[in-house]
Amino acid sequence: MSEVTNPIQACNDIFFKPNGVFKAVNEHNNWSWVPFLIVTVLSVLPGYLFINFVDFAWYQDMLINTQYGDMSPAEQNQIRSGMEQSAVQMFMLGTALPGGRVCLQSLTH
């Protein structure tokens, strides 16, 4: 059995040599942060890329027409004015992160 020498190798070997990885994690402190950070980045990245590369005016109209189609145009415009790209991006990023709902509640209140 080959020895696991770094956290990146541990992320790969967890699927093939889990006993060696668990032994190495037990012996080395703070190795558990690497997979956590990898999962967090991979959770946040799609939402971030989507909001940055999509036509935000189209996205805003699509959301408002599908969710608030039965409201008057004045109410839709009021919702549209409050829906900024940065707010939608923070919402998507906040819900992807652990405890995102708590963060969003603290930001909105």
- Helix-residue proportion: over 70%
Principal-axis shape equals: rod-shaped
Uncertain segments of ≥5 residues (pLDDT<50)? Answer: 100-105
Sheet with the most strands, sense and barrel status: none
Strand content: under 5%
Main structural class: mainly alpha
Mean pLDDT: 79
Radius of gyration: 21 Å
Number of E-type strands: 0
Number of DSSP helical runs: 7
The ordered string of helix (H) and strand (E) elements is HHHHHHH
Question: Which properties best describe this structure?
Answer:
single chain, 109 residues, mainly alpha, 7 helices, 74% helix
Question: Can you characterise this structure?
Answer:
With 109 residues, this protein is mostly helical. It is built from seven helices and no strands.
Topology:
Layout: H1 7-13, H2 18-27, H3 33-53, H4 56-67, H5 73-82, H6 85-96, H7 100-108
Brief description of this entry?
It contains seven helices and no strands. By secondary structure, the chain is an all-alpha fold.
